[in-house]
Amino acid sequence: MQVKIEDKSTVKKIIHIEISGEDVTAELDKAYKELGKSASIKGFRKGKIPRKVLETRFGKDVKADIISRLIQNSYIDTIKEKELENILGPPFVQEPLQELESGKPFNFSINIEVKPIISDIDFKGLELNKNMYKPSDEEIDAQLQMIRENLATKQVVNEERPVKVSDFVLIDYQGFVDGSPFEHAPKIENYLMDIGTKNMPEEFSTKLTGAIPPQEIEIDIVYGNGDDVDKAFAGKTVTYKVNLKEIQEKILPPLDDTLAEKLGQFDTLEDIKNAIRSNLESGYKVRVHQELSEQVFTKLLEKIEFELPDVLLESELSAIVAETEQAYLQHNITLESVGINKDFIRTQYRDVAEKQARRRLLLGKIIEQEQLTLTEDETEDIYTNMAKAINTTVEQVKKIFNSKNESTKYQLEYLKTIQLEKKAMEHIISNANVVEVEPVAESKNLTEDSNTTSSETN
User: Is position 60 within any domain?
Assistant: First the structure.
């Protein structure tokens, strides 16, 4: 067997393999000899069938089987002999393959991708800025207001006054087209509408604001032909006859210790504020770590260049598609039902996937370079977190992961890799020159992290 490895790039290689004519002949002879012992053809005794007859009847299948075996065995032998490591994904055999003929060499080529060779990374002493976020009184007040909004009650307004933008209104309504009832807008009674809500056409809020109940009001809405318009309404003018029955206003609980009583988890208003502050601090801690990680990747990628294998990029894209699909399925919705195309997702998130793939390679190099491993306690944490996630015992999780099922073994290795990547990032940050700085004014706003506070304190 003769082997030549052609470098198409730093990560793409072509393995050219030639099987000698003698080996091809030996393989064919061996195959037909074995076949002759078991083949059964009418008019011939078993074991006495001429080779020409076997070639005519079974030649195509025999050659296909030999070609498959030659490619697989020679590829495995080449990997061992040439010490090709870090091969990514399955090999791709170039087509078309030549005909297999006795006495003639058999040549074929295999495309492979390998991990890029990354030199040792000088990550120590990176200059990183750590924003020292602190919860402000304004943020705490905003969270308190959200809690009050969630605990608000509604009260009927008995005085005669016009509807305000902060009100709720109790209405009956029905849609008409050309004076006749419109079947797609049937009569709805006792609907409590929040003025300004997006659940109703904005014309409702505009027309009802300033009106004094009880009052009959007509609202004309002209529907366009856009993709966001229900086909039953497209191009139609629907007249809604609305019976404005009453106003209800939102009553917020007072901002004192009684608010703590309503929540049931706290004794005083100060307790609530402390819980909000603690949640904000936890959110900022996560945010700071994310910002430091972003700085690490930005600085490392600025000075380290390497080619990204297609197979890694495709793997990240497939993971993004799978995660998106799973997120919708949790609500019993398929991507197809909401008009989302998987190819569209792959196009939109290609840059994200490339960043993620490059980051994994960098962290993988740090793990290898620094010989980072997981301690027994860190591995135990994986089992514990998984047990909590699926609501079972640690022993049961270990039993699942220690089974002979290949998919569970792969999942465990994946979780270990994620944990090692976190450890690698902590190692980089701990060896960096971290400078504490005051956050710029525009970035110290209410964050998504802090928005969870009200639900957590409920």
Answer: yes
For residue 455, the model assigns a pLDDT of: 37
End residue of a domain, out of 202, 229, 251: 251
* Closest residue by Cα to residue 168 from 274, 248, 260: 248
> Does a structural domain hold residue 237?
yes
Q: How far apart are CA 41 and CA 28, in angstroms?
A: 20
| Cβ contact 82:3 at 8 Å | yes
Domain boundary (226, 251, 276) is at: 251
- Which residue type, as a one-letter code, is found at position 41? I
Cβ atoms of residues 11 and 114 within 8 Å: yes
Q: Is residue 266 part of a domain?
A: yes
End-to-end CA distance of the chain: 72
pTM: 0.73
CB neighbour list of residue 262: distance below 8 Å, 6 or more residues apart: 151, 253
**Shared domain check, 49 and 191:** no
pLDDT-above-90 percentage for the chain: 74
The pLDDT, as a whole number, for residue 444 is 41
Instruction: Give yes or no: residues 202 and 160 share one domain.
Output: yes
Distance CA 293, CA 300 (A): 11
Q: Under 8 Å CB-to-CB from 381, ≥6 apart: which residues?
A: 419
- For residue 441, what pLDDT band results from cuts at 50, 70 and 90? low
Q: Give the domain extent around 190.
A: 153-251
Confidence of residue 449 (pLDDT cuts 50, 70, 90): very low
Residue 67 is which amino acid? Answer: I
DSSP 177-227: ETTEE-TTS--EEEEEEETT-TTS-HHHHHHHTT--SSEEEEEEEE---ST
Shared-domain flag, residues 212 and 67: no
Which residue has tokens 């078991």?
Answer: 38
pLDDT tier, 226 (very low <50, low <70, confident <90, very high otherwise): confident
